[in-house]
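Table S2 (text version). Query chain:
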Amino acid sequence: MHTEVYLRRRLPQRPTQLALNVLETSGDERVGACKAALSSARFDLVYSLEVAEHIPDQLHAALVAMLTQATGRLLVFSASNVMDGVGHLRSSLRTKVAWIGLFERAGLKHMPGLSKLASEMAYPERIDIAKNVFVMRSPAAIDVNDSSVPTDPTLHRQKVFPWQSPLNFTGPTTHRHYLSDVAKVRDAQHVYEAALFPELHALAMRQVRDGCDKGSKTRPQLTIRSR
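Corresponding structure-token output:
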């Protein structure tokens, strides 16, 4: 996994993989300190996107417990259930319904309205996340209203990307399908980002023109997510 994914890009753009397993018992003081800090902290927003399918299934209970414990308000979660990806473990593939059930049994509440919004916001740049994502809330976050989600026109992704078919995940959605349209997605995404974040978009385009990533054969891409 490290070789295929983390070594694709040159330094300094290359990400660093953290070799710290907080899901298993360990005598390492660093692991113990990290687990203690996580178990005592609560965060307004916790997210885990397309990670769990890379984690052995015997650690899924610990993963669910850790994420639930850390969620002070909202958890945004997605995990692939297909073997069409680097480092996916067949025994770790679960459906969205199965994952929602695990988090509900751990004490979180499923938020269908926010889940739909999260799916729409991931589309079409990350069709895999759009298919798998859902939102849960902490029992303490009773002020979170799931029946009224934002209706700002800028959130209507289908209007921004009219060449894409409506979100319909009844058939297979794979990375290959996504990559076939990646160039078209990027062109449309630039228009979308320019409308939402003109200053940041101008900065990104200036970096592209100035060739800030001279060591790379491909243009750097700045992905800006909606607030």
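Notes on Table S2: The first helix runs from residue 2 to 6. The two ends are 31 Å apart (CA to CA).
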